[in-house]
Design a protein that fits this description.
The protein is α+β, with helices and mostly antiparallel strands. The protein is about 35% helix and about 20% strand. The chain is built from 16 helices and 19 strands. Strand 8 (about 165-170) and strand 9 (about 175-180) form a beta hairpin.
Length: about 475
């Protein structure tokens, strides 16, 4: 990285204006640490452009002078991909306009800095649905969602962010702009450049705009909270739910008893929906495009089958929107509820759905053999095989000593995942946290192909260096 001298700082200020070029470290500080506190970065300059053209000018100036840059959205990433290591930060927060909502085409064109919850609200105001839903939706931004190919709770029915995007506008590392805001369902004209940028974590370019798919709002939604004896019963219940509900099954979340105990203990307005405790729980959502009655009929049919076949031990049907939201609040708060319990070693893995019970059993054996007393809080999107396999420290353990076991614990859990042909990163990305491990587990030709793509797009290696791939 070349030195960022006073003249270059002045040149950057000329692009965005003095008020939007920040050198005060106290103002930059919130942009230097990620949510979990695992990575603490540094940056000499924070830039806040308000247009694609300004981003283009910033990146061209940086590339011409070999100044490293890092794009940043809502700073909600969980693998350190957005944390700078000396780079100039380019914040997209001022680029927050809904450019267009096309009611005939069922698409929305947005700036990359639009907060996810605002995109959801804009769609809802037009009677439509943007289905991406995350715990951080009040803070995370569309550009970051695309750059990490975010998942969330609606992947089962609607897919990852990749499946929800039709076109992109991207500033390349040279400062050139790719105008790819297409809204075609069929377009076989050459390589799919869009999919290269989605999930690239800002290493190939800066997403500045996107065309997002919209869907009709469900006419009826029902939610059921179910107590179960085992993950095998959860899998059987999932198969029944798919059979009865088909594409109307829009959520199927798995939670352990420990997670419910953590949330009811530490999260306001969270209470156990069932009278007795159970080892496992599922949260099931049905969304009907026909009517409230159709959704209710499906959930009741599922309720009856679950008890007839012995998979459900108890269940609660949400009787109001408030209760439905409370059930989801329980699930969405599960990660946050671990913090007061001390250190937590995280895993964002996926395995084939049929192997979820086997993975849970094998991973638990390995973890508890390695560290007796560790508290396993494994929850997530069972409907798509994505489990957040989180491990809280033993009661009374030293937090820092516990967290020093992060890498060996990862190796244990990820080794089992790979044996089951799974993935060590289902929806959070690679960033810094899994960069070196990625190089170890992927076929060398895959890493070489990624490096060639990176070199082709970013020959000066200025764009978010040392994330995903080692420089």
């Amino acid at each position: 990285m070349s030195e960022l001298n006073d003249q270059l700082i002045s040149d950057f200020k000329a692009i965005v204006g003095d008020a939007n070029a920040v050198t005060d470290q106290s103002e930059i500080a919130p942009h230097l640490v990620e949510l979990r506190g695992l990575y603490q970065g540094q940056s000499p300059l924070l830039l806040k452009p308000n247009s694609t053209e300004q981003v283009s000018q910033i990146v061209k100036l940086a590339n011409d002078n070999q100044i490293n840059v890092i794009p940043q959205g809502g700073n909600t990433g969980l693998v350190g991909g957005q944390v700078p290591d000396g780079e100039v930060i380019i914040s997209l927060s001022r680029m927050n306009k809904i450019r267009e909502i096309d009611l005939l085409g069922n698409v929305m064109v947005v700036d990359a800095g639009v907060v996810l919850a605002n995109a959801q609200k804009a769609a809802e105001e037009h009677g439509l649905l943007f289905p991406l839903s995350l715990g951080s939706e009040g803070t995370c931004q569309i550009g970051g969602n695309l750059s990490s190919n975010a998942g969330g709770t609606a992947v089962l029915a609607y897919g990852n962010t990749r499946e929800l995007c039709m076109g992109l506008e991207v500033v390349l590392p040279t400062g050139e702009i790719w105008h790819g805001l297409r809204r075609l369902k069929k377009d076989n004209t050459g390589y799919d450049l869009r999919d290269l940028f989605i999930g690239a974590e800002g290493t190939l370019g800066i997403i500045t705009g996107a065309v997002l798919k919209l869907y009709p709002q469900p006419k009826g939604r029902e939610v059921m909270f179910v107590g179960l004896d085992s993950t095998e019963d959860a899998l059987s219940l999932f198969n029944i739910a798919r059979e009865i509900c088909g594409p109307s099954l829009t959520g199927f979340e798995l939670m352990p008893r420990l997670g419910v105990e953590f949330t009811t203990k530490h999260i306001d307005n969270c209470r156990d929906p069932l009278e007795a405790p159970y080892p496992w729980y599922t949260l099931i959502e049905i969304s009907s495009g026909q009517s409230e009655e159709a959704a209710r009929q499906m959930i009741e049919q599922l309720f009856e089958r679950a008890f007839e076949e012995g998979f459900a031990k108890d269940a609660a049907l949400a009787e109001s929107e408030t209760q439905r939201d409370a059930f989801w609040h329980m699930r969405e708060s599960m990660s946050e509820a671990q913090r007061p319990e001390g250190g937590s070693i995280k895993h964002d893995i996926s395995v084939p759905i049929a192997k979820v019970p086997e993975f849970m059993e094998e991973a638990s054996k390995a973890v508890l053999n390695y560290m007796p007393g560790a508290r396993i809080c494994a929850f997530g999107h069972m409907g798509d095989g994505n489990i957040h396999y989180n491990i809280s420290q033993p009661v009374g353990a030293d937090k820092e000593e516990f967290l020093s076991h992060w890498r060996p614990m990862n190796e244990l859990v990820h080794g089992i995942v790979l044996q089951m042909t799974g993935s060590i990163s289902a929806e959070h990305g690679i960033g810094q946290l899994k960069r070196d491990e990625l190089a170890e587990i992927r076929d060398p030709i895959e890493i070489q192909l990624m490096q060639r793509i990176k070199a082709s797009f970013d020959p000066n290696q200025i764009m978010n260096p040392n994330k995903v791939l080692k420089r």
